Amino acid sequence: MSARFDSESPAPAGTIDSASNGAATGTAAPAGANASAIMYATPELVISSSAPACSPQGRKRVVVLATGGTIAGVGAAGKSVGYESGQLTVEDLLSEVPEIAQVADIEAYQVCNVNSDDMTASLWLELAREIEALSAREDVTGFVVTHGTDTMDETAYFLNLVLDTRKPVILTGSMRPATATSADGPMNLYQSVVAAAAPESVDKGVMVCFSGCLYNARTVQKTNTHSVTTMSGGESGSCAVIRDDEVFYSSRTTKAHTAGTAFHVGDFTELPRVSVLYFNVDADPRLVQAAAAISDGLVIAGAGAGEFSKLFAAQIAQVEIPVVVSSRVGTGVIMPASMLVPHCIAASDLPPQKAAILLRLALAHGASSEEIARMFRAY
């Protein structure tokens, strides 16, 4: 499904016109949707099902790809819990922020509409191919991907490793559903379009936009179960702040990303399976062999600087597939010299979920253990 949102096209049936005092003609708001989606609509934001056309000379064009999540969630009016994710379409989301049309022309696609806990490698690959195909167009300035926050950091890091484009790719979402009081989705979406349209965002890698800040895909993590400032760059902090229609960058990643990596989506339809094992006191060491039996690689979320028990270590030593050691702590670097089992690979400062992504891609590209170790230092 695709749509155009710009200031050049005549309003088709089902859009807002000023003569109706903000009421929609031809369509009704989705069941349970926030009424503000209609009240805020203006003639400048036109929803069209026609084929995309080039933006007028000098106008930016940002492609918005929606995948679902809380930002598209619907629940009891005013409440921030007990909602259902992935209920509103990309058109619904954009209709709540008509001011976006002042920033750029918008082309919108509904890739999927899922809770981000249901994101899969096959959806990642589909999304990456869609972005790469569209990025070849000269009239496309940048991209925004709406996404659930639970696994947003994983999708961002995957795209950061495989996309063959220098154009801005910004992921965003919300912590409150669209029907909540003071929903945070509309502002996050608006600021993401600002970031994607900014020339300063070119060749910065994939980023996450949340609560007025931009975070590098490699370092960003969700850090709180309910706060609207849940996203954090950890020890690296944010790389930029957004105020109104301006982006102010303070740093950029020195790690290889997007078109500068050795990875690509190729003709993959799936990725190798990597399981993450979380170590805790009295963790059953039999889990190591059980996970290894159904996996192509393992990531150990160790205690402290990648530590685990002697019983765990004894089982890991018998595993014949690649094993990467990360930490359950959340920040800090895992050093090769700290490995309790010689053949294990240090995850550097990647958290377990991102270490699993890098290992999956390394295995998909046929990397050896030595090459995988170098990739964890490079990416």
Task: Give a description of the structure.
The chain is an alpha/beta fold. The chain has nine helices and 16 strands. The chain has helices spanning 36-39, 90-95, 121-135, 152-162, 185-197, 286-293, 310-316, 352-364, 369-378, and strands at 2-6, 46-48, 61-68, 105-114, 142-146, 169-172, 206-210, 213-216, 221-222, 231-232, 240-243, 246-249, 274-278, 297-302, 323-327, 345-346. Strands 2-1-4-3-5-6-7-8-11-12 form a ten-stranded mixed sheet, with helices on both faces. Strands 13-14-15-16 form a four-stranded parallel sheet, sandwiched between helices. Strand 14 (297-302), helix 7 (310-316) and strand 15 form a beta-alpha-beta unit.
Secondary structure topology:
Blueprint: E1 2-6, H1 36-39, E2 46-48, E3 61-68, H2 90-95, E4 105-114, H3 121-135, E5 142-146, H4 152-162, E6 169-172, H5 185-197, E7 206-210, E8 213-216, E9 221-222, E10 231-232, E11 240-243, E12 246-249, E13 274-278, H6 286-293, E14 297-302, H7 310-316, E15 323-327, E16 345-346, H8 352-364, H9 369-378
Parallel strand pairs: 3-4, 3-5, 5-6, 6-7, 13-14, 14-15, 15-16
Antiparallel strand pairs: 1-2, 1-4, 7-8, 8-11, 9-10, 11-12
